[in-house]
Structures are given as C-alpha cells and as structure tokens.
C-alpha cells in the first residue's frame, strides 16, 4: 500500500469480488482522489482512516467494479424516462386505456409518443395499424415506438402531416408498409421510415438522429439545447442509480458529444461515456479518415471518448429486416437484406483498422453475423491489425460454422441476456415464430460461444430493455431452453460478472485501469445490498444498489427516500 495523498473514502464490511485473479476477494477498499489505493481486510484498511475520511459500511453486501454497460443508447434512453411507457401493455383495450389516460393527463400536448410498444400489443395474430390507433386518437399525431426502436406505428393524422400516408421511396432496409388501398398501414420499419413522423414530436426526433443516420440536428435553439442537456443529465443519473459507472453508447453524432462534453466541463459526468462514429451504407469512406479520426483526437479522455465505429448490418427479426442465411420460417423466399455488401463492408473494416478504430456491428440474423465476421477477418489480413477487438452486437442467431470463428479472429461477442425470449412467452412473441424451430437451437447462444473461447461482454441495449444490470444477470443465470431440444445456454455468475466488468473494460482497451478492484485502478465501484453469491439466481433481480462511485465521486447513494425507486423523483410516466 503506497499512500501518496489523503484518504477520501473507505469501504468496510463488504464481500468484495475484485475480478482480479491475483486477489479474488477482499473486505475493504480505500480511495484517494479518483484511485483505489488500498484493497485488503477491514482492520488493515480501517487503520488508514484520517480525520477527513468518509467511512461506509457495506454490511456484508457485494462490492464490485462499477458495472460497464457495453451497449446502450443514452440519448433515446434518457428521453424514454419522460415519455409514456407501454412496456408489457397487451390487448387493444389495455392499449387504449394507457394512451387515453396519458392523453387526459397531458391535454396541452400537441402530439403523443409511446415507447416500448410490443409487436403483439393488439394480439399475437393481428398487426397494429393506423386504423387501430385512429380508434384511440384521431385528433392529434400519435406514434408508438417498438421496444427495439426498429419499428413504429403512427395514426393517420401523423402520417398525413409527415407526408408519408401515400408512401415514400426510402433507402435499403427501411419501409413505409403499404396497404391494399394504396395508403400506408401505419407500420414504419427502420429509421428512415420512422424519422419523418418522429420529427413531429417534442424534441424533433433529435434523440434518434445518432441511431438513424448519425446526422446533426437542424435549427437547434438554445431552449432545445438546454432541454436536451437536461434529458442527458437525467439519463446519466439513472445509469448511476443502477450501479453503472461506464457506458458504451451504440449511436452517436457530434451534437451528442458536444452536449456530453458540456456536462463534463461543468458539473462533471457521473458515468464514463464511450461514443461511436456512426457509419451508414451511404456514408463516404473518406468520413472515416476525416470525421471519425478527428472526433477520436478531440474526445479521448477517460471520461468521454469517441474511438470506435458503429454500423448496422441488418435490422431485427420482428420487423423481418434481420438478414438470415435461410428463409424466414413463415415467409418462403425472404431471407431479409444485408445493409452492406460484403465488398463495401470489407473496405470499411480495413480502413477503420488502419486508423486503429474498433468496429461494432449490429448483426441479428445468422447471415448478418457471417458477413460481419468475414469483414473482420478481411481487415485482420489486409490491415495486419489482429487486436482491435472488433465487436458483433446481438448475435441473436448464429450458424454453427461461425461459432469458432470468434476466438480465431479475435472478434468480441456483445450480447444482451434480457433479450432472449423465455419458454413461457415464446408462444406470444414474434421472434421465435419467425426464427423457426430449425434455428431456435442456435438462438442467443451465449454458452456455446463462451465454450468456444469467444470473449463476451454483456449489456442491456437500453432503452430496448430495462437498464438494471441485475435483471440481465438474473436472466443469464435462469434462462430456460425456449423449446424442447434447445441447448441450455445459462452461464455461471462469475462469467456474467466479467462480461459486465473486466471484459467490458478490456473491449474498450481500458482493462489496465478499470474493470477490477485493484490498487492503482480507477475508483469505479458499486455496492449492493446483498451478497449475490448466496442469493438465489431467480432473486438477483431484487438486489438493489446502495452506493455508486465513479472516478472517486459518489454518484448515487440510496437513502430511505430513494429505496424502491431509482432516483428520487425519477420514474416512467
């Protein structure tokens, strides 16, 4: 123990899982400034206390390196905290009741948007249409956004005002679904179809720009900017309340970076943020050499970084935009479409690799996963860059021939445990039906990938799924096979925790200073209210965060007033 400054904080009485193989467990930690300066037993660390030292007792709860959510959407997630949540709402009358109640409470809102909508909100067999929504609300624009952010449904007045009731030609992968009457049904698939309607609503769709195109918002007033910063502050505080000290964002533009940097320079960021450069299939390759490289130079601190490239190779199964090697189970002749040709994607990966920029690619279908792995393998050969830790996001279905390729080419499997459908819900969910029984044994194959030596990181994809890491940890430990004959994909606790801590730090090239509780490492810590090694896996979702520390600062502390709620005064409407 090398004390070089004042001891600001001491944690005692904890069951510390350090994620450090050299010292897996400890009882106490001392923090000076933004660094951990001592890790040991209670007596020896308590002896370091000084007059100004704050001492916190963990009361036998687990203490971990702060959670690192390796796949979130911070701007849209922040916006979702103040929007109507339709999570779990099913059946026309229930949907009508939720929307009518919100509309009555917000009579002056010129338009209404609901987030987290199920594809089966009307019923498993009846798709949502504008006609359903017109029965609920026909006097102001209404937009329901699916839980995965890849599909939305609008009422007639919204489609009219957006100028797409009669349809619109859109780039590859996006679609305004048309009815037999020659008019839009109300279903909007993927970002370019949703954006014209989303622009009608409060915020002008700015929070979706980084996801849809990476474009910069137009005509942002000072009031708009202040509103957006307030949203981000709320979202970042919400992350801290869930024990999260680092997020790796999966959408981005310069506008978001500037807002986050303003927060960093004023009150300070309560969470470390890693942002990407968003690459679409129409983005010129020169933007990687110019814009992406410039953003990387400008934002390159431990608190705010822009050092990787994000792409979408396909969409999602539910909207039939995922790209499979074989036909959809319900639709002969349709495999989906890849958003990049193999040659185009190869060029992007090679260019990014030469610039030492990591690539993270959304790939849901097994066809998309294969094309992404091909590109990463090409980049390694051409650019001689074999340790850029290129990532594959989601991997909802994988072909057996591609499982071993992850470890061979050094690709990272980035997965979201809470996305996997449960056996009980399989009959009600869209994805299992469209994937089909032949592919279900290869769906959400965490354990198969882990056994094959793939380096894995875990995350939530918030706001697609709830942000709480404990929900995901419980889901990964308790998932039952979705059908008979489907392999058991459950993982042990330590493997999952590594995916949320050490592996997540490794994938962003920061495992030399975070992801473990070790002397000299950054003081990013989370204290839980129970020893998670003795809590039953199915009960882990009820374990709460009592204290979050990021960069040596307490960013969340649960009191009697905040128990049972993420942050005092913070809730879904």
Tag the structure with descriptive keywords:
eight-stranded parallel beta sheet, 573 residues, 20% strand, globular, alpha/beta, single chain, 31% helix
What is the gist of this entry?
By secondary structure, the chain is α/β, with parallel strands linked by helices. It has 19 helices and 24 strands.
Please provide a written account of the structure.
This protein is α/β, with parallel strands linked by helices and 573 residues long. 31% of the residues lie in helices and 20% in strands. The chain contains 19 helices and 24 strands. The chain has an eight-stranded parallel β-sheet. The N and C termini lie far apart (49 Å). The model is unreliable at 561-573 (pLDDT under 50).
Low-confidence stretches: 561-573
Biggest pleated-sheet summary: 8 strands, parallel
Report the principal-axis shape. globular
Rounded radius of gyration (Å): 23 Å
What does the average pLDDT come to?
92
Write the layout of secondary structure elements.
Blueprint (H helix, E strand, L loop, with lengths): L8 E4 L2 E3 L7 E2 L1 E5 L2 E6 L1 H5 L7 E4 L4 E4 L1 E6 L1 H7 L3 E2 L6 H14 L6 E6 L12 H7 L5 E5 L4 E4 L1 H7 L12 E4 L5 E6 L1 H8 L7 H7 L9 H20 L2 E6 L4 H12 L6 E7 L7 H13 L5 E9 L29 H13 L3 E6 L2 H18 L7 E4 L5 H4 L1 H5 L2 E4 L14 H6 L10 H6 L3 E4 L10 H10 L14 H8 L1 H6 L17 E4 L16 E6 L2 E5 L16
Parallel strand pairs: 1-6, 2-7, 8-15, 9-10, 10-11, 15-16, 16-17, 17-18, 18-19, 19-20, 20-21
Antiparallel strand pairs: 1-4, 2-3, 4-5, 7-22, 11-12, 12-14, 13-14, 22-23, 23-24
């Amino acid at each position: 123990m090398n004390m070089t400054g004042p001891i600001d904080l001491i944690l005692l009485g904890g069951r510390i899982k350090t994620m450090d193989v050299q010292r897996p467990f400890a009882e106490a930690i001392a923090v000076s400034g933004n660094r951990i300066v001592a890790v040991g037993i209670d007596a020896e660390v308590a002896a370091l206390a000084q007059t100004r030292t704050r001492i916190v007792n963990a009361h036998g709860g687990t203490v971990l390196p702060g959670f690192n959510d390796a796949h979130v959407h911070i701007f849209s997630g922040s916006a979702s905290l103040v929007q109507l949540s339709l999570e779990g709402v099913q059946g026309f009358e229930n949907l009508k009741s939720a929307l009518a109640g919100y509309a009555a409470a917000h009579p002056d809102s010129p338009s209404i948007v609901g987030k987290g909508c199920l594809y089966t909100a009307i019923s498993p067999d009846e798709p949502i249409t504008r006609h359903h929504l017109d029965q609920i609300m026909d006097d102001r624009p209404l937009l329901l956004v699916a839980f995965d952010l890849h599909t939305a449904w609008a009422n007639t007045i919204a489609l009219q005002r957006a100028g797409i009731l009669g349809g619109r030609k859109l780039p590859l992968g996006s679609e305004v679904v048309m009815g037999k009457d020659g008019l839009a049904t109300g279903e909007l698939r993927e970002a370019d179809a949703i954006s014209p309607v989303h622009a009608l609503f409060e915020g002008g769709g700015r929070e979706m720009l980084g996801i849809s195109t990476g474009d910069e918002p137009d005509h942002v007033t000072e009031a708009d900017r202040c509103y957006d910063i307030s949203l981000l502050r709320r979202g970042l505080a919400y992350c801290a309340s869930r024990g999260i000290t680092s997020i790796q964002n999966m959408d981005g533009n310069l506008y978001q970076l500037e807002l986050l940097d303003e927060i960093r320079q004023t009150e300070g960021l309560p969470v470390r943020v890693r942002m990407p450069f968003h690459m679409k299939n129409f983005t010129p390759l020169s933007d990687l050499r110019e814009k992406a490289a410039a953003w990387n130079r400008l934002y390159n601190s431990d608190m705010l970084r822009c050092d990787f490239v994000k792409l979408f190779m396909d969409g999602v199964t539910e909207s039939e935009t995922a790209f499979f090697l074989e036909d959809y189970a319900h639709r002969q002749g349709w495999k989906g479409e890849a958003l990049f040709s193999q040659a185009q994607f190869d060029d992007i990966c090679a260019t990014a690799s030469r610039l030492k920029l990591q690539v993270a690619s959304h790939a849901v279908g097994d066809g998309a996963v294969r094309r992404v792995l091909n590109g990463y393998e090409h980049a390694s050969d051409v650019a001689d860059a074999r340790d850029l830790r290129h990532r594959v996001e989601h991997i909802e279905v994988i072909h057996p021939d591609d499982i071993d390729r992850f470890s061979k080419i050094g690709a990272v499997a980035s997965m979201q445990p809470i996305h996997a459908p449960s056996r009980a819900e399989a009959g009600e969910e869209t994805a299992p039906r469209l994937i089909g029984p032949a592919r279900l044994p290869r769906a959400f194959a965490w354990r198969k990938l882990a056994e094959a030596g793939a380096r894995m990181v875990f995350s939530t994809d918030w706001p697609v799924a709830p942000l709480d890491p404990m929900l995901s940890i419980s889901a990964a430990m308790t998932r039952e096979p979705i059908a008979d004959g489907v392999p058991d994909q459950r993982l042990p606790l330590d493997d999952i925790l590594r995916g949320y801590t050490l592996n997540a730090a490794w994938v962003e090239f920061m495992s030399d200073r975070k992801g473990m509780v070790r002397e000299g490492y950054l003081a990013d810590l989370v204290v839980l209210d129970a020893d998670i090694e003795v809590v039953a896996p199915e009960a882990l979702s009820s374990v709460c965060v009592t204290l979050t520390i990021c960069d040596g600062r307490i960013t969340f502390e649960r009191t009697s007033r905040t128990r049972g709620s993420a942050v005092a005064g913070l809730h879904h409407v």
